[in-house]
Amino acid sequence: MNPSYDVKLWEIKRNQSSKTPSYVVRWAVGRKERSRTFRTKALADSFLSDLRQATKRGEAFDVDTGLPVSMVQAKKATSFYVFALGYVDMKWPHAAAKTRDSMTDALSTVIPALVNEDATGKPEPSVMRRALRQYVLSPTTRDIPPPQEIKEALTWLEKNSLPVEELAKPRLVRLGLDALTVRLDGTAAAPTTIARKRSVFYNTLQYAVDLEELPSNPIDKVKAWKPPKVREVVDRRVVVNPGQARELLNAVTYVGLVKRGRHLKGFFACLYYAGLRPAEALALRMGDCRLPEYDWGLLLVAKSKPQSNKRWTDSGEGHDDRGLKHRAADEGRPVPIPPQLVTILRDHIEEFGVHEDGRLFRTSRGGIISIGTYCETWRAARALALTPEQVASPMAARPYDLRHAAVSLWLNAGVAPPDVADRAGHSVDVLLKVYAKCIDGGAEVANRRIGTALDE
């Protein structure tokens, strides 16, 4: 291998010499120019993104192949098991903790399915999954000495994992897809889980295409296998009206000991009145707030603290320190807030103060509030504020449903979708798709038009 850090990347260009649309990625390593052509711009974008990530993490490129060292190592892999480890190594440095969790979860499901069908002595699925999830898929745990049972399972996988080139056969890829549809106990997996794991499996095989180990993504050729439908729109039954939201926020203050509920009222109010995601509210600091006494205020949302297993975070803490979803790392989002939330936050700061780093919401010891803590408080508040029938319904079943209620309220109040999307941190297309069933008035207008036509 001939490593170099002298790398230059160019923007993607349409291939004008081809009759069919294609796109060219061009780059240079050690002043030696390289290019690769892709059928679609999305595939070209994916490959260029991998190259850019390698340069951002300071990875050397191999002059002979033009590829980052991590890609060269993956390209040398003979089995899908070893190739998957290379894929994880490439993705890991810039992946969020939840992405790492999702990636290792999916691959620990697929890898045991893509093995020699005639091999004997296959370990128990639970043992293989534990071996992959806890010991080898995460680069940070590979040096931990495994128990004998785990060592034997990994040795078996190394020996019997299918060669990467064999996965060009749709029949074999279907084995991996079928594995995604069941849990370890044999019961059916949830549609969202299947969709999430399929996405990881698809991207892993696409990486093999990028490295020219496969001619095309074999999942595209599996026509008989269809992923289950996943709900992409908000169920309007979860959306509370302003009166119900006020009752729930008041009920929060009566929950728990040592002022826990009162301390969390402001947190839940940020979800409803500002449409924040829970992880965004947890990262909110005093310096992010403009809180005039008798007027609309402003939140400058800049950070997010999503919760994940400590195994997947760089810090070893339970919460990542991330930028905002769907935005550049240093790009914030201004969110105007109504006087109701201004008052709640001013009262919160007056009673509880802020942490030394400026955070508004924290545990009694200054830590990050866990999902379990605020969800437990929310369940108790629902039981106090709602009728038994409402408690049994999906109404505001999760704290996140307060954000859904906020966005639905803005849309139904006549706020222009681009403005709503800016406040919520969505694209307009996603906003209208997700909240399509929460916009009132459409059915009534349609009924009037149909009635008028029938009366003619």
Topology, element by element:
Blueprint: E1 3-4, E2 7-9, E3 13-14, E4 23-29, E5 32-38, H1 41-56, E6 61-62, H2 69-75, H3 80-91, H4 97-110, H5 125-136, H6 148-160, H7 170-179, H8 191-210, H9 242-252, H10 260-273, H11 278-282, E7 289-290, E8 297-301, E9 333-337, H12 339-352, H13 371-385, H14 388-392, H15 400-412, H16 417-424, H17 428-434, H18 442-455
Antiparallel strand pairs: 1-6, 2-4, 3-4, 4-5, 7-8, 8-9
Keywords: DNA recombination
GO molecular function: DNA binding
GO biological process, one term: DNA recombination
State the separation between the terminal residues, measured CA to CA: 81 Å
Largest sheet: 4 strands, antiparallel
What are the segments in which pLDDT stays under 50 over at least 5 consecutive residues? Answer: none
Number of strands: 9
Write the element-wise H/E pattern from the N-terminal end onward.
EEEEEHEHHHHHHHHHHEEEHHHHHHH
The total number of structural domains is 2
Which of globular, elongated, flat, extended, rod-shaped describes the shape?
A: globular
Helix content: 40-55%
Structural class: alpha+beta
What fraction of residues sit in β-strands? 5-15%
**Count of helix runs:** 18
CA radius of gyration is 26 Å
Task: Kindly report the average pLDDT value.
Answer: 87
Describe the structure in brief.
This is Site-specific integrase. This protein has 456 residues and is an alpha+beta fold. The protein contains 18 helices and nine strands.
